[in-house]
Amino acid sequence: MADGRRRRTLLLGLLAVLAAGAVLGMIGQRLVPREEVTGRLQEIVAARTGGILTPGRVGVRIWGGPGVVLRDGRLAGTGADLAARTGRPNDLGPYEVEYRRLEVRLDAAALLAGRLEWSGARLVASRVDVAWGGDLLKARDVEVALSGVTGATAEPGDLVADGDLRAATLDHDGCPWRDVRLTGHWAAGRSEDIRLQADLGDGGLEADLDWNTRADRGGRLSGRVVLTAAPAAELLAPYLPDLAARLRTDLSGEITGGLDLADRDVRLASLGLTGRLRGTPGELDAADWLREAGPYLGDRPDLVHIRFDRLEHDLVVRGGVYRLERLELAGPDTEWRATGAVAFDGKLDLAVHVRLPAGFTPELGAFSFLAESLRDDDGRVGLGLKVGG
Fold it and tell me: What pLDDT does residue 201 have?
C-alpha cells in the first residue's frame, strides 16, 4: 500500500515538473523574442565588424535567466571589413568560426520593460581559423564566456565585461599550443589584467598582458611573459624558422616589453623587448653559418654541430634590431660567446669567440705557429670571429 502511494507521489511529481517545464517554455517563447534577438545580434555583428553571423537552429532558455541559444552556426568576416567599420587599421585577414552553441543571456528586468540588453554570452566552437599578419592561427574546441556585460548595445568603447577563453589546441604556423587559457576584464576599450597560460611540449608559458585598443597605430599590447621548458624548435617556428630548424633545447626565462599592432611593419618597428633566457642541454646545427670558418676547424663535425650543456642569453629588441647582449653556449667540445646585433632586414654584425677543445690546433696555414700562443692554461685555443653581412 505504502509502495503504491510512493509511486503515485513520484508520478505526480514528474507530471508537475513536465507541466511546469511546458508552461515555462510557453512563457519563454512569449517573453523572449528569439527572432528579434537573433536579428539584432546579426545587425550588431555586421555594424561593428562587417562580419556575417549565420544562425543554425534557434532556441530560447529560461532556466538560469532568459536568453537565446543559437546552435550549429557560423561567423565569418575579414580584417578589411573590420577596418572599414572601426576606421582603424589592422593586419587581420579572413576569419571563420564554426560554433556548436552560441548562448546570449538577456537582462531580465530590461526584458520585462521591453528593452533588449545583454548580460552575458557563451560560445562553444569546434573550429576558429584566423589569418593575422601573414600567419594562420587555428584553434580547436574553443569555449568563450563573457559575464557582467554592460554597454553591449552602445558604442564599442563603452563595453564592460569579464572574459574567459579556453582552447584545447591552438596551432600558430607550426607551433602547437595546448590547453590555452585566457582571462581578463574589459572596460573603456582596454584590458589591463589579461592572464594567459598555454602548454607547449612538456612546458609552456604564462603571461600578464595589457591590451589598449585606443592607443595610436592600431592599439598596443604590452606585458610580461614567463617561459618554462618550452621546446625552442616549436616556439621559434613562426618567427625564426631557420633557427628553429637548427636549435634543439627547451627554453625558460622571462621577457618583458610591448608593440603596436597596426600591421607587420608597425609591429616590427615598435617592438621593444628585454629578456633573459636559459636552455637545457641540447644542440645547435651551425654548419652553414660557419662554412667560412671551415678551413680553420678542419674535419671536425663536432665543432659546427655544437653540443652544449648550458645556454644563456640576454636580449634586447629595439628600433628594428635584435641585440645579443650576451649569448653563451658551453658544452663538452666547445664554448661559444657572442654579442652584437641582428637587424630585422637580415643584416648581421656579431662578434663571436670560440674556445676550442683541449689539444686541438686550428688550421691557420702559414700562421700555424700562432696557435700555441693562443692556447690557454687548459690547453685550449681561443679564436675570435666577426660575422657580418
Answer: 94
| pLDDT the model gives residue 114 | 56
Q: Using DSSP bridges, classify how beta strands 250-260 and 67-78 pair: parallel, antiparallel or unpaired.
A: unpaired
> How far apart are the C-alpha atoms of 26 and 23, rounded to whole Å?
5
**Hey, what's the cell of 77?**
568576416
Helical spans, DSSP H, in 132-271: 232-235, 241-246, 264-270
In terms of DSSP bridges, do strands 348-355 and 335-343 run parallel, antiparallel, or are they unpaired?
antiparallel
Three-state DSSP class for 289? coil
Burial class (CB in 10 A: 0-12, 13-18, 19+), 122: middle
pLDDT lower than 50: segments of the chain = 7-8, 10-31, 154
Q: Which amino acid is at 18?
A: L
Q: Which three cell numbers stand for residue 252?
A: 625558460
Amino acid at 382: G
Nearest Cα to Cα of residue 107 among 97, 117, 92: 117
Q: What is the pLDDT of residues 173-232, one digit of tens each?
A: 889 999 999 999 888 667 778 999 999 999 999 999 998 877 777 788 999 999 999 999
Kindly provide the residue ranges of all beta strands, DSSP E only, lying in 133-270, ordered along the sequence. Answer: 135-150, 160-172, 175-187, 190-200, 203-212, 220-231, 247-248, 250-260
Query: pLDDT value at position 14?
Result: 45
Q: Where are the alpha helices (DSSP H) in the chain?
A: 2-31, 34-49, 79-86, 108-112, 232-235, 241-246, 264-270, 294-297
Q: In 3-state terms, what secondary structure has residue 88?
A: coil
Which grid coordinates belong to 327? 649569448
The C-alpha cell of 96 is what? Answer: 571563420
Confirm if 163 and 186 have CB atoms less than 8 A apart: yes
User: What's the CA gap between 134 and 239, in Å, rounded?
Assistant: 11
Confidence at residue 3, expressed as pLDDT on a 0 to 100 scale: 55
- Closest among 69, 66, 186 to 119, alpha carbons compared: 66
Give the DSSP H or E segment for 73: strand 67-78
Q: What is the DSSP string of 313-361?
A: EEEEEETTEEEEEEEEEE-SS-EEEEEEEEETTS-EEEEEEEEPPTT--
User: Which cell numbers hold the place of 308?
Assistant: 652544449
| Best CA proximity match to 340, nearest among 359, 326, 324 | 324
Coil, strand, or helix at residue 174?
coil
